[in-house]
Amino acid sequence: MDMGDVETFLSHLAGSRDCSANTQRIALNAIVYLYKRFMGVGIDDLQFTLARAQRCLPVVYSREENVAILSQLRGVPSYCRFVLRTSILAVIIFMFAPGKATKIALFRSY
Fold it and tell me: Residues 43, 3: contact at Cβ < 8 Å?
């Protein structure tokens, strides 16, 4: 593989494969490592098409959707839900409780 093949491959990832910029960067780093470490050849200035950074929109559920999802949990996942809810509550109380005695009493109750 010469430098033209490397440029073609990286451009192919961005164009035909529609990969993310991070995927293309990882492929580039792997190729540079391979060439330097095992072939003893340095890769200089490559001219290839950069992948566009893909926008990821966060998925946000409403309170009702969260309740519906969590109510379907059974067994171990249900126990994990309980632990998660109580630990979040404990952290909130711990952060905002006015005195040390309240904080100690809270953790002794568990």
Answer: yes
